[in-house]
Input
Amino acid sequence: MKNKVLEGIKEKANNVYRKILKKKAPELDLPLRSLSNVKYDEKEGYFEILGKKKERTLTVGTIKTFAQTLRMMGLSKQLIEQDDIATKREAYYVSKNWKEAMFKAQPESDTVMDDVEAMMMVNREQLGFIPEEKGGEIAGKLIVVDRDPETKKELKIDCTKFGSGAYSIPISVEHLKFETNAKFILAIETAGMFQRLVKHKYWKKANCILISMGGVPTRACRRFIRRLADDQKLPVYVFVDDDPYGIGSIYRTLKVGSGNAAHINKYFCVPQARFLGVTPQDVIDYKLPTHPLKEVDFKKIKDLLKNDPFIQHHKPWQKALKQMQQMKVRAEQQALCRWGLNYVITKYLPDKLKHPEKFLP
Amino acid sequence: MKNKVLEGIKEKANNVYRKILKKKAPELDLPLRSLSNVKYDEKEGYFEILGKKKERTLTVGTIKTFAQTLRMMGLSKQLIEQDDIATKREAYYVSKNWKEAMFKAQPESDTVMDDVEAMMMVNREQLGFIPEEKGGEIAGKLIVVDRDPETKKELKIDCTKFGSGAYSIPISVEHLKFETNAKFILAIETAGMFQRLVKHKYWKKANCILISMGGVPTRACRRFIRRLADDQKLPVYVFVDDDPYGIGSIYRTLKVGSGNAAHINKYFCVPQARFLGVTPQDVIDYKLPTHPLKEVDFKKIKDLLKNDPFIQHHKPWQKALKQMQQMKVRAEQQALCRWGLNYVITKYLPDKLKHPEKFLP
Output
């Protein structure tokens, strides 16, 4: 994989070099990154990028960006060759030594990095660039196979052996391998619910892998779930709050990706994800305490129904969101505590897991 | 410890019960929680609560809060006895079954929980109440001794064995034990810098424990560092951005706690913490790229100089903040990349660690 990316960079650079030798204006092809250049196909399972391209030809007007793009490709080459990493922020600071090609502000270098990512048709992590933020914790029936960064020796990390703690997903997960006999992955919105399930070793009872997303999952967390689910052919069940944010931001981003990162959804979506709960119907079935929806919630529901290709594709989601609209309330995962702190373990999750076929798509 | 808290709850409850039997109005004593009831003493090392108390006597006007306080004490007793946990949010939902003593909104139940915490003079975690959020990751020369939540068997978690990943600090850390021969703890602001040091196994070179705080450290993270540093008699060096937020929010909160949580600073402060950098002087010495301070930054500096008892106590901090004010710029940890991605490992940290006595207090 690494070598393929390296070769790709060298090839693009060589094309530029050869054009220059022939005294022709060199150019770089970039896919157009915008919603007008994506489609949603349930079979593919994510917002897929279409064929539209923009060309960046070397002219007086583009010379700086052109040079910066080549420099960024060079930095990526260096990172891959030296097995090193750089955050977006660090890459920006490295450019302070690029003289005239120096970036004035980070948004500029971020854009060029996104361009290189799209040009190579890989995700940033494969270029050696890592996100600033991390997130995502694991407990349960999983052995993560990493390697010692120094000796390159294999390291087996047993996620049943963390007691009340957990394994924290690294920023780059491309090199990890997995061993498990778990039946499914349970992706959880809040750290508090995760801690409850860990405390009571729910992963043992249910034979599963618990993942705490801590709100909208980071790139590393999404990529980790995707790679794990693909590799081990595991279903992914998502357990979040019953509100437009839990459904439209957390779940939707995990499952199909987002609009403004269309060129990388392919790597970061988890098409096998299914929505366990909390659903608007659960609020009725389990008589959960609720909070009234606010203006901003109603707006988000309307927006999802009207503009989101994923929701528009799935009738059951339209029905669920309209039900929430009519009920005028939202409910949190923790609302299950109304029936006892561990009702979620003794009743709600076992009930639900009897019928995964009923989970929302 | 657990038994002491249990006995304390029972004793307070018994006092109420006995008063009622004698047909007298029962009362509960609570320390006053406000800045007017704290002092800063360098020897103690944190904002310490003074003796002022408020009394909550049972009257027609206080009957609901009084009942809620007793109920909350009861919930805590149950949690401790059953070795269970509850987040603030969960405790609020549990109250939905308390009939007339039900809380209408979570701020009400949070206040009562804070009251019980202050009344028992312990931290919330010792009452079985855990924070919603977690945070804090560990890599390096440390073995955390936890226990299996089910079998209670000892579990040794070796933080040198996670490859590119890390150990994620659990929400409650009271029961953890530690084994280490590291020389110091390095607490780091950003996940990106942490990942760089992990990637290059800096903890091995420097014989230390790396902790990623991810911005302002959570309660669990602060308590973990405190317990680890006390238990193993380790110095704590803090490595954050050179800006009023890194100094006045992240570092200050880690070291001495905060004003509005005075009754628990005793448990959550890390008095042994010292400020490694980035300092305003580093910006000059290492010729770091900077960003101009904004209006809000200048305001925060003024506020720290004028109102913060910790800054007022330490001349070197006043000097450093005034220097920042005059330089009119801030600098990030990542700015060190200007001299190469791993300059921080080969030059900056080794340089600095030669003279810990020069670290800001």
